Amino acid sequence: MSPNDSKNSGGFFNSLASSITNFGSVMTKSVNGLIGYEGIEVINPDGSTEDAEEEAGRGRWKQEERDGYWKMMQKYIGSDITSMVTLPVIIFEPMTTLQKMAELMEYSHLLDMADKTQDPCMRMVYASTWAISVYYAYQRTWKPFNPILGETYEMTNHNGINFIAEQVSHHPPMSAAHAENEHFAYDCTSKLKSKLLGNSIDFYPVGRTRVTLKRDGVVLDLVPPPTKAHNLIFGRTWVDSSGEMIMTNLTTGDKAVLYFQPCGWFGSGRYEVDGYVYNSAEEPKILVTGKWNESLSYQACDTEGEPLTCTELKKVWKVAEAPKKDKYQYTHFAHKINSFDTAPSKLLSSDSRLRPDRYALDTGDMTKAGYEKSILEERQRAEKRTREEKGQPFVPKWFDETEEVTPTPWGDLEVYQFNCKYLVHRAAADNSEINTDMESTQFNPWQFQDTSP
User: Fold this and answer.
1) What pTM value is reported for the model?
2) What is the rounded CA–CA span in Å between residue 452 and residue 116?
3) According to its UniProt record, which protein family does this protein belong to (predicted)?
4) Phi-psi bin for 36: left (phi > 0), alpha (psi -120 to 50), beta?
5) What is residue 66's three-state secondary structure?
6) Quick one: angle between helices 120-133 and 109-116, nearest 10?
7) Helix (H) or strand (E) segment spanning residue 423
8) Residue 211: alpha-carbon gap to chain centroid
9) CA dist., res. 98 & res. 94, Å (int)
10) Which of 23, 142, 253, 272 has the fewest CB atoms in 10 Å of its CB?
């Protein structure tokens, strides 16, 4: 059975998958005109289209605010608004996209397990589960800050990992990240695309994620599903991902194909994930099932995808307990990411933790956060004009642009690779060899950069 047949075969998940998919398609029918606004679609994830008008009156906005934001956003319907719209800080969380990339490291012990196991199929179970584990954190309904060009984020003191991310391009917005410990190396180039649909927005993960497991040197490639944020202006905002996640062992040909179920009426199918690990001959070997906001389990299966007799589901991952009634729906790990507890010695002056607007919002000063955000954005525009006048393109410090352009389901991607400069810097910093003169030359995106020679 081929991976593409996993949802249509007579296997373990067939009846469940088909019924959930039908529910999802019914639920997402347009409810335009219910509240007198053209192009509005309001969806209650816990109800149906019948209560859309009631749901539209809920959410974080007052009526006059909803009207104002709707008038502002109407002209962008159908557009990629990733970096073209200035948004109020009231919808932001005190974290940047670079920090959000680091959240993928919370359950990195699963990659350690993938590196240690000698079973090639279990390797795919552990690695694909790691890729799914971050979706609990990604369901937050607050927007992270867009990184300033040249902004960085560093993280240490978690599972022996050194993590570094850098904003390598502003138009289009692109980030690159590298993480490493004794078991694996993680490399990612991300160029998120979006499409505003009115009261919702689709996010397409244009990017390349590669994980190298060090013991055997195998390389894993990840293609995640798209994500949709519903009820941006009218109704309570909620996030859902649906479609296939594919992780491929580029060294052996083994593959994990996991299907994220769309949310149906009254929450039916929401959070559910199921699929199979296939060997290089495209034969299903292990079924994986669970909910991305709770836990995942696995079980050996036959070539038809049916569970083997005398086997049982075994839990491979469970989401960690999260703080109760947290303002930004943060996990304990998200709080660590924002703190200096995970910062290395001699933190780069361009680190996200030091952003004045992010820091102001984190301390509860929304007025100052909005002011600092506008100042940073104007400085970035001014610096761009200066670079263009002098014919000096921006050059990232810790990542190099390669000549490789890789295709993705949502467009081509220019690939950046981690360079050794950061390792030299970090070794010097850890040995306290960075002197005052060296520190003074570090890139600081929170101040206007003079690009003169």
Assistant:
1) 0.87
2) 50
3) Belongs to the OSBP family.
4) left
5) helix
6) 170
7) helix 421-430
8) 16
9) 12
10) 253
DSSP 3-state of 180: strand
- Residue 166: how many CA atoms within 13 Å on its side-chain side? 25
In the beta sheet, which residues pair with residue 177? Answer: 165, 188
> How many CB atoms within 10 Å of residue 385?
10
Q: How many CB atoms lie within 10 A of CB 129?
A: 27
- Two tokens at 413? 């991607």
Helix or strand run (H / E) with residue 201: strand 201-204
**For residue 428, is it within any domain?**
yes
Cα separation, 92 vs 237, whole angstroms: 13
Looking at every residue in the chain, the average pLDDT score rounds to 86
Output the six-digit token pair for 165. Answer: 């991310």
Is residue 331 in a domain?
no
Parent domain of 144: 34-239+344-432
Task: Give dist(CA 448, CA 445) in Å, integer.
Answer: 7
Q: Give the 3-state secondary structure of residue 238.
A: strand
**CA angle at 271 for the pair 269 and 276, rounded to the nearest 5°:** 85
Inside any domain, residue 1: no
Contact 20, 315 (CB under 8 A): no
Give the count of alpha carbons within 13 A of 263, CB side only. 21
- C-alpha 277: how far from chain center: 23
**Number of compact structural domains in the chain:** 1
Q: What whole-number distance in Å separates Cα of residue 149 and Cα of residue 168?
A: 6
**In one letter, which amino acid is 245?**
M
Please state the φ and ψ torsions of residue 17, each to the nearest 5 degrees: -60, -45
25 has a pLDDT exceeding 80: no
In angstroms, rounded to a whole number, what is the distance separating the alpha carbons of residues 379 and 447?
7
58 assigned to some structural domain = yes
